[in-house]
Amino acid sequence: MKRALISVIILLTVTATLGAHKTIRLQVDANEPQPLKVTMCNLYEDPQRYAGKLVEFRASAGGTRLDDLWLDDFGGPTCDAYMRIVAVFPEQVTPKPSFSFIGNEAFRQFVSSIRSMRVEANFSGRFDPGFVWREKKRIRIADVAGLRDKDYDARIVVQTISEIIARRLPRR
Fold this sequence. Notes:
This protein is an alpha+beta fold. It is 22% helix and 33% strand.
């Protein structure tokens, strides 16, 4: 087991070093639950299925500050439902998640890029849905602390941000 873990760490280190977009991989404890790989459309169309679970999805981040990060899939498939999803960090929410935020080189790249670039990244964390939009109606699906009077419908309590691609914003 120890030899396999060392091999995985070496492989991930080489992958991170050779990645074209500064892909950073983290050492993952085999006893920790792994996030479910989903799309934003999966979250929109079946939020109860993923409520409270650890998920990972790709999204574009809107906003220029960490306390105001909106996530969307601008180029994704058309979905029958929609949610305004915001990213928050573990220390900002109640109930507290069972994990802590893992800051790393990818996160530092993310922070420096969101101020002036369009940033896409993989976000993993706990999904807390409160509302969903279907047929132009906002429908309550759960009572989540902090969502009732907010401008967003769901949140992802971020554990990791990875695989960042930053593109220059077009000039106006």
